[in-house]
Amino acid sequence: MVLRDGRPEDGPAIERIARRSFDRVYAFFAIRGRRRAWPLLIAEEDGAVAGFLEGRLFDGPPPLGYVYFVAVDPDHRRQRLGRILVEESVRRFRERGATRIFAAVPEDNEASMNLFKRIGFDEVPRGAMWQWYSLRSIPVQMNMMIAPHEILLVHTFTDPSPASVDGASGP
After folding, report:
1. Residue 18 has what DSSP assignment?
2. Closest by alpha carbon to 25, among 57, 69, 58?
3. Dihedral angle at the C-alpha atoms of 161, 146, 64, 52, nearest 10 degrees?
């Protein structure tokens, strides 16, 4: 397995994997999302794209990371490629100074939920984004495009937020 940065010529493979991995709406956003992704990571098996991760880095004090999409071709699953992609994104977000990394997972996607939790992500408490980031939370959450059936998860490196009022200072 080779892990590398995405390139423009990976577009058709990302589209193929997105269409095989997601419903039409998610596939649409995953295909469009690669243009603004950082990091854009590619997992290759035997020279072929087997998975990808699209991240977003929200600048500001502090920078925040977001795993926008991660997908592994169904023919290459159960080889830890998803975990490798997410762990590499966590490393890169941390290098860029992110204090937290977020991911939104459909509540019925047990495999993805377990993947993120094994890597150290926890569910974001209700109201925590506002508690942590006040007005900044509004555009960040809008850019995350969290669907009503998704659960927001967080991996915290350091907690720069003010003291908790209702236990929402962060996991």
Report:
1. H
2. 69
3. 150
Taking the CB of residue 61, how many other CB atoms lie within 10 A of it? Answer: 8
Could you identify the residue written with the tokens 């962060």? 170
Distance CA 15, CA 31 (A): 6
* Cα–Cα distance measured from residue 164 to residue 159, given in angstroms and rounded to the nearest whole number: 11
- The predicted pLDDT at position 115 comes to 95
Pair type for strands 64-72 and 100-106: parallel
User: Residue 31 carries which side chain, given as an amino acid letter?
Assistant: I
Cα–Cα distance between 9 and 115 in angstroms, integer? Answer: 28
In one-letter notation, the amino acid at residue 164 is S
The H or E element spanning position 115 is helix 110-119
pLDDT, tens digit (0-9, with 9 covering 90-100), for 76-114: 998 899 999 999 999 999 999 999 999 999 999 999 999
Give the integer Cα–Cα distance in Å for 16 and 20.
Answer: 6
Distance of CA 34 to the CA centre of its chain: 13
Chain centre distance of CA 139: 17
Q: Cis omega (within 30 of 0) on the bond before 162?
A: no
How far is C-alpha 53 from the chain's CA centre?
7
Tokens of 147: 């669907």
